Amino acid sequence: MGDVMLNELFSNLATLASLEYQERYVIGGTEQEHVAIDDLIDDFLASVDWMNTQIMSESDRNALNDFAQFLDKNRDGALAAKSFAEVKPLMRNSQIWMDIRLRASEAMSLLDLDWHHIPVEELDEHIWDYGVQQRIALRD
């Protein structure tokens, strides 16, 4: 169970860091492949709640909790779009989403996770297959 949940945690973090993912699945998602903007945030926050019950290094937990607190504090601004038409400019151009992507990317760096080489269509499911498990095991 732990490996699956860690995969979910890091996948959720990577989807918040990736504009390419957001453009493909939130802004330009099809009916079959669409991610709601609030799901990006809620899924990460739920996985951080799980993470706090697990044995992780204090620095890893702090990095993720700091980002989660920022995200929670800025949730209303991040979800300010009142219609689908407002989602595109909000996610692409607003300072809040630029900060979300930057902070998510910084959290990934603090965890020594390089997600940039992972194909965008794999970010939300198969991040574990790209060496995340090995890097986490080395940190323990």
Can you put this structure into words, describing what you see?
This protein is mainly alpha-helical. It is built from eight helices and no strands. Helix 1 crosses helix 3 and helix 1 (2-17) crosses helix 7. The protein is globular and about 40 Å long. The two termini are 18 Å apart.
User: How much of the sequence is in beta strands?
Assistant: under 5%
Distance between the termini: 18 Å
Helix content: 55-70%
Order of helices and strands: HHHHHHHH
Poorly predicted sequence stretches spanning 5 or more consecutive residues: 131-140
Concise structural overview:
The chain contains 8 helices and no strands.
Q: What is the topological layout?
A:
Elements: H1 2-17, H2 19-27, H3 37-51, H4 58-73, H5 75-78, H6 84-93, H7 95-110, H8 132-139
Helix pairs in contact: 1-3, 1-7, 2-6, 3-4, 4-7, 6-7
Q: Characteristics of this structure?
A:
disordered C terminus; single chain; 140 residues; mainly alpha
